[in-house]
Amino acid sequence: MSQFKPSQKILHWTTGITILGLFGLGYWMRTLDYYSSWYQTAPDIHKAVGVILISVMTLRFILKIIYPTPEPLATHKPWEIKSAHIVHMAMYSLILIIMASGYLISTADNRGIDVFGLFEAPSLFIAFEEQEDIAGFIHEWCAYLLMGLVAIHAGGALKHHFIDKDKTLKRML
Amino acid sequence: MNNTIKIIGAVLALTLSSTVFSAETYQIDKKGMHASIQFKIKHLGYSWLTGRFNDFDGTIVYDEKSPTASSVDVTIKTASVDSNHAERDKHLRDEDFLNVSKYPTASFKSTNIVGKGEGKADITGNLTLNGVTKAVTIATIEIGAGSDPWGGFRRGFEGTTEIALKDFNINFNLGPASEKVLLELNVEGIRQ
Q1: From the CB of residue B65, how many other CB atoms can be counted at a distance below 10 Å?
Q2: What's the whole-model pTM score?
Q3: What is the pLDDT of residue A125?
């Protein structure tokens, strides 16, 4: 039976936690008062971490293509396998859309994104009219949708661990 | 009898037409964009932040014989706000400021014009912004008028006014130095 590679496990948990953190930070930063000391730094961190996430997720996608995905456990029911697959694909798609739309919001005025003063992710193109608004709408609602899927994903893992008492969660640890 | 009616009719027609002709309609030169609607607000009290609305249209009915009988009507697409910063523009369009999805247009319709001499006038009118309509007075000055090199006739004005954000239900706290916005209007109309 094939296993997840340690690199894949590390990437799963680091990107997962980062995405949860970016969601929380993104939600919180929009509620800040103009005079909050975080008013400028919170979006700066959100964007910089987002740019880094794009490269790490790219690596994760490459590893997913290189290494075969481990077979589902024999005890998994067909509906579980099917729904897990749909949720995984939907999460990957949403993450891609959220990363792309986030980039498009910040680069809509032809300015790049500063990544902690280390380098700048350049603005490559203006994709469409009213870019920051359309991309912003997509970014926000896809993020809510993703969090819903994350809840299903985590709920499924916990169900397998505590109710079915199988190795589904353990093999990602 | 018939002739008398004709003469009276002719005199009436002439009088009416001369009144009508003394008021000329000018369309804002949107095509060549010799017009701008700019705003200016203090940032923290330390500097001016400027921006503009890129999409607007309007007409000026100008009465040379009696300038105070003129009128102005301008409509602005609020989503065209441009402060040269995408994230700020996105914020300006949302509910904290212009609420553009709910109120896509802002408008100014003059109600009263008071001449101040030397081409100056105070134009009072109803400004509708963020769904709130309130009377404001724009201090204007005629910059110039005359034939253009392409067969038309143009007339241009400059206007300034100051509005308080909270008067238009814009309550995002930008600090005590940033409660008022200056509006600067530059309008060139082409006579129709």
Answers
A1: 10
A2: 0.83
A3: 84
Please give the single-letter amino acid code of residue A167: K
Contact B90 A133 (CB under 8 A): yes
Per-residue model confidence as pLDDT tens digits over A115-156: 999 999 999 988 888 899 999 999 999 999 999 999 999 999
B23-191 in CATH: which number? 2.40.128.110
Residue pair B122/A145 in contact (Cβ under 8 Å)? The answer is: no
Contacts of A35 in chain B (CB under 8 A): 173, 175
DSSP sequence for B79-136: GGEE-S-HHHHHHHHSTTTT-TTT--EEEEEEEEEEEEETTEEEEEEEEEETTEEEEE
Would an 8 Å CB–CB cutoff place B102 in contact with chain A? no
A162 secondary structure, DSSP code: I
Average pLDDT over residues A70-95: 93
* Residue boundaries of the structural domains of chain B: 23-191
CATH match for A6-172 among 1.10.3210.10, 3.40.50.300, 1.20.950.20, 3.40.50.1100: 1.20.950.20
ipTM confidence score: 0.81
Can you give the pLDDT at residue B59? Answer: 96
Q: Tell me how far apart the alpha carbons of residues B128 and B180 are, in angstroms, rounded to a whole number.
A: 16
- Intra-chain end-to-end CA distance of chain B, in Å: 39
- Across the interface, which of A33, A35, A132 has its CB nearest the CB of B86? A132
Flag whether residue A130 sits within 8 Å of chain B, measured between CB atoms.
Answer: yes
Q: Per the CB < 8 Å rule, is B86 touching A109? A: yes
Please tell me if residue A132 touches chain B, with a CB cutoff of 8 Å: yes
Range ranked top by mean pLDDT from A8-12, A58-62, A68-72, A142-146:
A142-146
